[in-house]
Amino acid sequence: GRNKLMKIAGGIFPGRKIRSVKEGVRPSTGYVKKRYFDILRNRIVGSLFLDAFSGTGAVGIEALGRGADFVVFIDNGYESLKVIRNNLEKLEIPVDRYLIIDLEYNRAVRECERRGLLFDLVYIDPPFVYYRTANPLRILFKRKVLKPDALIALERPREERFTAKYFPLLREFKTRSSIMDFYVNRPMDEKPQEEEGGTEEEK
Fold first, then answer.
1. Are 76 and 99 in contact, with CB atoms under 8 Å apart?
2. Mean pLDDT over residues 13-39, rounded?
3. pLDDT per position as a tens digit, 84-137
4. Angle of helix 58-65 relative to helix 30-39, nearest 10 degrees?
5. Shortest CA distance to 20 belongs to which of 30, 32, 31?
6. Could you tell me the end-to-end alpha-carbon distance of the chain, in angstroms, rounded to an integer?
7. Which of 20, 26, 80, 200 is an S-S bond match for 75, by CB 3.0 to 4.6 Å?
8. CA nearest 51: which of 80, 21, 15?
9. 95: which DSSP letter?
10. What is the band of 6 on the pLDDT scale with cuts at 50, 70, 90?
11. What is the mean pLDDT of the chain?
12. 139 SS3 class
């Protein structure tokens, strides 16, 4: 079958349709993406943004549309890479605004370190089975790829137990099937300020 189309919600591409991946990729729901960008609206502009497990590239593309300086897309699925490139070309996004890294996630983060990339914002949305064998925060903690106070958003399945242990949890919001955690790149013993944190449930 043909690839499905997805809409971009905001930024300079609102309502524009981009291609999705036929199968094997679980895109973030519109609600999750909308809440993410609502929460971070003041931090996107001028940021260096990492879209890990990019899938369709929709999150990174919206970040560019909302004023991110540069986005790194990480994915190594043949179909996903084809769709990401197609979407970037369709929207005529200049090639000096992004980098696509065609490597497995951990190797891709090491490549970011090798290139001297230091991110302000990281969005991680792996296939949910990934969490049964790995913690995607570990490599970010081990490698020098984050600026101080960088914000990491991690979408994970609601039914799976997950121990962060590398970064303090700033806030979270819950949907019916998933949880998005926001971690901040600070020492674990440095607690977030009261006004920064909180738990939010999908209405």
1. no
2. 62
3. 999 899 888 999 999 999 999 999 999 999 999 999 999 999 988 888 888 999
4. 40
5. 30
6. 34
7. 80
8. 80
9. G
10. very low
11. 83
12. helix
- Give CA–CA dist 107/103, Å, rounded: 6
The contacts of residue 157 (CB under 8 Å, 6+ apart) are 128, 131, 177, 178, 179
- Is the model's pLDDT at 168 over the cut of 80? yes
* Beta carbons of 114 and 143 less than 8 angstroms apart: no
The helices-and-strands tally (H runs, E runs) of the chain is 6, 10
- Long-range contacts for 16-21 (Cβ within 8 Å, ≥24 apart)? 16/91, 18/56, 18/57, 18/58, 18/61, 18/87, 18/90, 18/91, 19/56, 19/83, 19/86, 19/87, 19/90, 20/56, 20/83, 21/55, 21/56, 21/77, 21/79, 21/80, 21/83
According to DSSP, the residues that pair with 171 across neighbouring strands are 182
Q: Round to whole Å and give the CA distance between 94 and 172.
A: 33
Residue appearing with tokens 């700033």: 170
Our CA dihedral for 52, 107, 67, 26, rounded to 10 degrees, sits at: -20
* C-alpha distances in Å from residue 124, one per residue of 50, 96, 178, 180: 8, 23, 13, 9
Amino acid identity, position 138: R
